[in-house]
Amino acid sequence: MALQRNDAPPDHQEIAITASDPVPLRKDGNPSAGTATPAVELRGITKRFPGVVANHDINLTVRSGTVHALMGENGAGKSTLMKILYGMQKPDEGTIAINGEQCEFNTPGDAISRGIGMVHQHFMLADYLTVWENVVLGGESLYGIGARAKAKIKEISDQYGLGVRPDALVEDLGVADRQRVEILKVLYRGAKILILDEPTAVLVPQEVDALFDNLRELKAEGVTVIFISHKLHEVLSVADAISVIRRGTTVGDADPKAVTARQLAELMVGAELPSPESRESTVTGEVMLDVEGLRIAKTDAEGIDRVVLDDISLRIHKGEILGIAGVEGNGQAELVEAIMGMLPLNAGAVALDGKDLSGTLTRARREAGIGYIPEDRHRHGLLLEAPLWENRILGHVTEKPNSNGILLDPTAARADTQRIVEQYDVRTPGIEVTAASLSGGNQQKLIVGREMSHEPKLLIAAHPTRGVDVGAQAQIWEHIRVAQRAGLAVLLISADLDELIGLSDTIRVIYRGRLVADADPATVTAEDLGTAMTGAASGHLESEPEAVEEFHEILVEGTEAEGDGDRSSDAGPSDAVPSDDRTSDTADDPKAGE
Q1: Which residues contact 332 (CB under 8 A, 6 or more apart)?
Q2: Which among 319, 291, 301 is positioned nearest to 508, based on CA atoms?
Q3: Among positive and negative, which fits the CA dihedral 232, 235, 236, 242?
Q4: pTM (two decimals)
């Protein structure tokens, strides 16, 4: 079956279905699940920024006591819409009704007072405060600022299995722990309408199942969840209703019981669901990265020295992708920082292409041929308030075309930034706009283009497709594959086990700072990897052949799209709603990429 676009104007797209069986897509914005009174009703929501119409005439109805999934490609307008619902942005037009009562939100405090809580994809935490101080901040009147507040935080953490340490400094936490703190903040304030932006991005399959069980329990108690995700199979598993946003406006609703992942992908981006599955081997016998006996101890918030990496040894050959699986916080970040020269070693050595880099600075390792896609693009990959051409220089200051001898060459850097924008399909009005004005997927494509442009010998890719839509995923995967075939060695760290299994030639599992298991991606399932990631299995992992076959069938289900992520003509760079100025779907808003 195919989902096709009519010739309607771009701000009011209809979906034509060409199939014998009806597809459960509706234009009335009224999913059948839930009670008669909507928890959230958005009507005619429009939000404009200079050069960009982020939302245009959006209508959305979310029934009480349901999990309602909101889907759309990067830059489609999802985050702007949720920021409007949460009081972070004011709409230019339209109305908001909560539980049948029309509301106007000027601040997040207004939304919180109406029982709305939001967990952002890019976290809103103060690094220099402890967990409990972050949670209490702004909610001091609820349980005070002392023992009673700490007791409540621990109670919520235990109740939902969050495993949060109230006295830990946020700056010492990994991405997964930061997300748990954000969820705890929302629950602490007693929210009855939860907005979750990519909540499963850092979870292993078992943790995803536990989260979904919690969502179902919350739903049974009347809590409403708005669930933003790019993982289509997860949405189909947990959602009661699905709404799709495209080019800033709602294009349809779907019944998850009757729609397929392929249909959703086509509705979102005009292309079928991409797959990371790639089985042709390009591994050579030449070692590119040789890590021997790495050991790192760090002093924690309590002043205790803890070993975060313990006797880590691994080799990556030219043309090989080595995947590292692990629950975040088990040493992955430290492993990357050790290889990059960002952390001092207590023991061990790092060699690249036969050259010992153990005592060298990060810049020297970059110049030696290490490319780096960081796990948090906002904290470590971009200068958000700097223009794109300055971000192209970041991390490669001494290398051509960014510099000419000892001086920077802004003209050449600008020209090469324009090349990256075109070659890597970075959707932007121009290279002078700030990185913050791009959607998350376009920010990531800019980083990938920057790192690939220096033809690295080794690419460290930490969560390279986190938070990007299916079209951008396909493009990033293909760029990595092309470079791999040319001899690139890749250290891939990903919480997306489908991605890890689909791309990797070999997989190692890290647990509490040690490599405890290994697996051949062709003979292991995500579930068995997840078991080892929680410490319940070790050694060589091999799943039952029937389970492996079923897993890979699911992995490639409905994936006939070209590897380069080409989209149909209705998903091109000018997919924003037209305005008086040149428009682009590069941004949800100028201050925060989606």
Answers
A1: 324, 326, 375, 462, 493, 510
A2: 291
A3: negative
A4: 0.64
